[in-house]
Structure formats: C-alpha cells, structure tokens
Amino acid sequence: MPLTPRGDHNPDPTASVRSRRAGVSAESVPSASAQDWTKPVYEKSDGEKEMLREIIQSNQRLQVFFGHLQPSAVDDVIMAMYPKTVPAGSDVIVQGDVGDACYIVSEGSLEVFVKRDPSESGKGGKVMDLGPGSLFGELALLYNAPRAATVSCTTEVKLWGLDSDSFRMMLRTADAASPKENEDFVEACPAFAILNRYEKSELASKLQRDLFDADEVICDEGDEAEGAFILEDGVAVALDEDGKELYRYSDSGCIFGEVALLNGDLKRTATLKAAGQGCSVFVVDVDTFNTLLRPLHAELQSKASKYVYRPV
C-alpha cells in the first residue's frame, strides 16, 4: 500500500553535494616511541603467511589500515602476529577492559555482545557473529579507549593477535591512522548517536554506496526489499503508483526504505526515485538492519507512524 506523510516536506538542498563534519581520529604515536620500537617476529609456515596475506588483502577494514603498505611492510605485519588458541565458552575480550591486542580469526566462531546500560547484568545483547577472516579488537587500540564490546567463543577458536604497540606502529608506518570516509559519515549522523563506537565502526564497514541519476528509480513499489537506504547526498522521493510524490528525503543521514524491513514482509510500499540532481545513498542490507541498527528500530517505528497507509 502506498504511504502518505503528515506534515511538510523538507526543502530541496541548494547544492548537490553536502560537506561532512570531521569524524573521530586515531591516537597519534610519539616519534620517540616509534624510534624505540622493535618489530616483533613470530615464525610461521609458508601456508600460514599466505593465509594471513589473503585475509589482509580481502578484509575491507584491514585494507583501510594496511592497504597503503608495500609488500615488504605487509610481511612485517604478518610476522608481527602471534598465534593464540582460546577454548569454547571463553571471552577473548571483555567490554570495559583495556585493549592490549587486536585479533584475526583463523578458525572457529565467536559472538559479539554489547552492554548499553552499565547496570545491565551479563554481557548485554548479541550484536553479531564472527568467523574465519574477521578482525576484532582494533577499536580500543585505534582510539586508546576501553573495549566497546565483549567477544566470546562459541567453539574453540584459533586467532592471530597483533599487540597494541605493533598495531599503532604499523598504522604510523602505513600513514593510515585516520578512519575511512564511511566512518566519518556514520560518526557525523545524529541518527546513529545511540550506537557505540564498535557498532558505528561495524556499520561503516558494511555500508555499500550507490549513485542514482536524476529521476532514476531506486526501487519499485512491490519489489522485495534487500535493505534500507541512508541518504548521503542529494534528494530522493517516494512516489505512489500514479507517480505522485508522497515524501521527500533531503537530509543527509536520513534513513528511508525501512518500512518494508520493519514490517517484516520485505515488500516495498512505495516507489523510491532520485530527484533534483540525483542522489548518493548507502545501502544497509537486511541482516545489518536487523542486528547493528536494532537499537534504532523503536525510533524508526515512530517515524513510520507518521505515514498514513491507504488502499491501492
């Protein structure tokens, strides 16, 4: 069923590209510390080296940190990693603790929990699962802050760890200490203020940008929804079956296309189209919407209540 808004539309922006506020940045490393640091070396088989090299090349977040390194410097990162085996049921990192290492999962599965209220008992709510090739624990090192989540083993897990000093020195060498563009965007969006640093970083790593020209259809009414959208730049509109504009989205960071996901039937209730000079959006897949963005669902449901549904 099409939807009709209550209230006025937002005005068109005067420019097609919006400026973004600066995001958070990594802690700098003093030059003296860099001079005193000695690269650690942990021997590995050729197979282990190749496996880690493939993970670094294929993991988007690791590419952000180490993608600028020459092959020889990547080898230094690999050789600095140490093996660690953790039994099932154990916590690898605990929310609130001081971070001393980050980890790459070699074998096994883990769960990530986030406690939002300090008075909450237990580990908090489950946020996501991790498996081979996943990176975790880097945020506490990157921001010199307490652990933002608890990561627990559901099976015996084999990890490759990188200690905090090596992690920061490798970042300094790679000249990649500043967060990527997606993290700047997420940090600047008021809609995501309820998320903690871990969730924001995870969300940023999963966003996929898509560009639409003016009047290009983003999705049609009745389509199966594969995700929601976050407006980066430009304007998008919701249209009924006759092409009448029902709602206009022009605030950078606003979430739209969420109704089908909140309803659970995954059927688009309106046609979404780029307007003005077109738009740039980030696509949030269904799983990410239902896990990382779950803390926003109540607010999004409230927003959806402003729409008036009418029979076709």
TrEMBL record:
Binding site for 3',5'-cyclic AMP 2: 258, 268
Composition bias, Basic and acidic residues: 1-11
UniProt-listed InterPro entries: cAMP-dep_PK_reg_su-like, cAMP_dep_PK_reg_su, cNMP-bd_CS, cNMP-bd_dom, cNMP-bd_dom_sf, RmlC-like_jellyroll
Residue segments, region Disordered: 1-44
An MF annotation (GO) of this entry: cAMP binding
Chain positions recorded as 3',5'-cyclic AMP 1 binding sites: 138, 147
SMART domains in the cross-refs: cNMP
One GO cellular component, as annotated: cAMP-dependent protein kinase complex
Gene3D superfamilies on file: Jelly Rolls
Residue ranges of every copy of the Cyclic nucleotide-binding domain listed in the record: 65-188, 191-310
Pfam families given in the database record: cNMP_binding (PF00027)
Keywords: cAMP, cAMP-binding, Nucleotide-binding, Phosphoprotein, Repeat
Family of this protein: Belongs to the cAMP-dependent kinase regulatory chain family.
Protein name in UniProt: Cyclic nucleotide-binding domain-containing protein
